[in-house]
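Morning!

As promised:
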Amino acid sequence: MAEPRDVTDATFESEVLKSDLPALVDFWAPWCGPCRMIAPIVAELSAEYAGKVNFFKLNTDENPSTPAKYGIRSIPSLLIFKNGQLKGTIVGFRPKSDLKKRLDEVLAS
Amino acid sequence: MTLEYDVAIVGAGVAGLTAAIYSSRARRRTVVFERELVGGQIATTDRVENYPGFPEGIGGLELAQRFQQQAERFGAELRYESVESIERLPDGRFRLVTTAGDYRAAAVIVTAGAQHRKLGVPGEQEFAGKGVSYCATCDGAFFRDQDVVVVGGGDAALDEGIFLTRFARSVTIIHRRAQLRASAVLQQRAFANERIRFLFDTVVTAIEGGEVVERVRLRNVRTGEESVLPAAGVFIFIGQVPNSHLLAGLVELDEGGHAKVDLEMQTSVPGLFVAGDVRWKAARQLVSAAGDGATAAIAAERYLQEHLGPPPLEG
């Protein structure tokens, strides 16, 4: 899987919370500039972590209840889940090296 | 491995990318380091209406991407690394250590820009991304039909406050003085907007909530009276602080932390130039940042001509 898959309010539980692998969800919206800049970086990570982490993206305009549930007030926000539990949050644009570091920390924990 | 460049530029905002266009077009090996967003402050600006040549205005991000394409077209390299230190070596070259490598450059242009000034009250850091924001265009849509506050009294506070009325039910602009600093045109627009109200002579003393922001604590600086205002969002626009920590100890800074330069953006260190929001006496506008970047790159080119000679001929 090279590209992060779209996930919705309806499929969040089955796709993300019940994911067999750790899951990273990129919360984004079409009007958000920094989201457009982080998206290609997340796509690269998705290829690099294939088989280790499942990558998803959720459009917050079309799916308001999941962001509300997790108290998202700023995007891009990347949420990392393991076994249905939220293990890490990255808010705002970060360079790739920072994202990898944070992801590796969560995977090692 | 140490990479060598003619010109190293620190920060890919408007000043840095403009300098990169000039230096790379002058056929100097040019690198631009960026630790966050290409475009800097304009990357999160909704619309730019005062950049000449775009009579209908242009999206900030789109303009940033155009600057980037133009710099890369002439061969400038963009590296997503944070510069940790700049040092002048005995041979006159500069050493730059980044989060990913060690570089040498004959001339350095620092265009590190400025960042949002923090309020420095309890709850501000804890609720960052949980209701505390420094960017209405980024986060405003999460406050649909909610009550938010804006802290500040300048152009940015009013501009962003007006933007927030697209989403928020009410916007309360909290300003510590009795009068706004914002331009007359923005004041008129804000006063005419029925979703905006003002609290003057008032400061925020704390931001509180549970999972997310729920209220702010206020104090009237004239009467000393304390109060609590329910709010889901706190947008802070109280000015900028220059990103000059790399320059401390290297060049002279003014009391605000801005680097002192001459009219050619030259610092007291030969070969080290500073341009854009991080220099003193800057107009802090998009177009002046671009002008600064060009001025610095032209001065750097003159410096390189003296020390390295002309660039190699093409082909």
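The CA atoms of residues 3 and 74 of chain A lie 23 Å apart.

Hope this helps with the figure draft.
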